[in-house]
Amino acid sequence: MSTTKIVIVGSGFAGSVVAEQLARAGHQILVLDQRPHIAGNAYDECDAQGVLIHRYGPHIFHTNAQRVVDYLSRFTDWLPYEHRVLASVEGQLLPIPINQDTINRLYGLNLDEVGIQAYFERVREPRDPIKTSEDVVLNTVGRDLYEKFFRGYTRKQWGLDPSQLNAAVTARIPVRTNRDDRYFNDEFQIMPKDGYTALFQRMLDHPNIHLELNTDFFAIRQQIKAKTIIYTGPIDAYFNYCYGRLPYRSLRFEHEHLPGISRYQPAAVVNYPNDHAYTRITEFKYLTGQQHSHTAIVREYPQAEGDPYYPVPRPENEALYQQYKALAAVERNVFFVGRLAQYRYYNMDQVIAAALKTAERILGSA
C-alpha cells in the first residue's frame, strides 16, 4: 500500500466525515469497512417489498448544533420529523418522556402544570449526591414511576439495574410538567430526505476517496503503510485487549414486513419496559415519511454478545477506558474518533462534531 494514503477504519459517521473533509483538502484516502456496505449503523435500505428500513435500528437525527446541520446539508435535503414514543404500561400506551398526560391518564387525575409539579415534589425521593441512574429517576419522579417506566427497560437494555449505571443514562430523558410529547427538545429535528445511505454515498463520492468493503482492518494491519490512520472501531480491539475487554452492549434485531397494513402502531416507537424480551418496536414509515401500502417494523433484543453498539457507562469501565486512552495518546499518527473508539454514548450529531474536530486537527498539523 502507498505510504501517501490516509487510511480510515470504518465508514460510519465518524470515518466518513473525516474522509470527506480530508479528501476535499487534497489528501488521498482509503476507507476500510468490514461490512459489505457504507454508513455503519445508520445504514438504511429498502426491504424486499420496497419499504425503507433502518437495518440496525432507528436512527433519528436531532441536534442544537447549527454547524452540524450546515455540514450535512451539503449532502442531503431534509424532512421535518418530531419523534414521539409511547410506553406500554398497565394496559395503556402512555407518552414517554413522562409528561402531564402520562400522569393524568396513568392515575386518573386531572392536574395542570402546577399540579403536576406539585405531584412530582410530593412523590420524589431526594437523592444527594446523585451518582446512579436510579438516583436520577427517584430524585425526579419517585418510586412508582421509576418501577413502571424505567427499571425494567434499563435492566433489559443494559443487563444491569439502574443502581449500577452512571447517572448519565437516565439523565438523557427529560421529565415534563406540560403536554409536550416530543421525545427530543432540540432546535433541529429532521431526517435526511432520501435516507442515510444516500447521504453517505454523496459524502464519500470524491475522486480522492477509495472504498474497500468486506475488509477487516486487523487482517491486513501489517500491510498498511499509511502516514495517518483514523480508527473508529472499539479502542480495546486496536490494542489487542491488552488491559482486558471493555464492556459493550449489543442488540439483536427482528425485522418484520407487514403486507397490506399501512400503520401497525400509533407512534414511531413503542417501549415495553415490563413486558416481553424486547425493549421496543419501531415502525419505520413514521421516521422516513415514506408513503407505502405496506409497513415494516423491528423489535430490539438487547444482548451481551454481538456487534458492539453501546459502551456501558459505569465508573470501572471508564477507568479501564482511561488506560486505553493513555495508550492512544502516544500512538503516533493514529486518531481515535467515534462512539466505540472514544467509549462514549454519543448521539449522531456528537459523532459528527467530533469527526469535524478531528479533521481540523489533522489538517492543522499537516
**Head-to-tail CA distance between termini:** 20 Å
Main beta sheet: 7 strands, mixed
Assembly of the depicted chains: single chain
Reading off the top of the CATH hierarchy, the class of the domain at 6-38 and 204-247 and 312-365 is best stated as: Alpha Beta
DSSP summary, beta strand count: 17
- Residue fraction in strands: 15-25%
Task: Note the total helix count.
Answer: 12
Query: Which structural class should the secondary elements be placed in?
Result: alpha/beta
Radius of gyration: 22 Å
Helicity, in percent? Answer: 25-40%
Note the overall shape.
Answer: globular
CATH architecture of the domain at 6-38 and 204-247 and 312-365: 3-Layer(aba) Sandwich
Mean pLDDT: 96
- Report the CATH superfamily of the domain at 6-38 and 204-247 and 312-365: NAD(P)-binding Rossmann-like Domain
How are helices and strands ordered from N to C? Answer: EHEEEEHEEEHHHHEHEHEHEEEHEEHEH
Q: Numbering strands along the chain, what is their spatial order in the largest sheet? A: 8-7-13-14-15-12-16
Unreliable residue runs: none
Query: What is the third-level CATH name, the topology of the domain at 6-38 and 204-247 and 312-365?
Result: Rossmann fold
GO molecular function, one term: UDP-galactopyranose mutase activity
Organism: Candidatus Competibacter denitrificans Run_A_D11
Family: Belongs to the UDP-galactopyranose/dTDP-fucopyranose mutase family.
GO cellular component, one term: cytosol
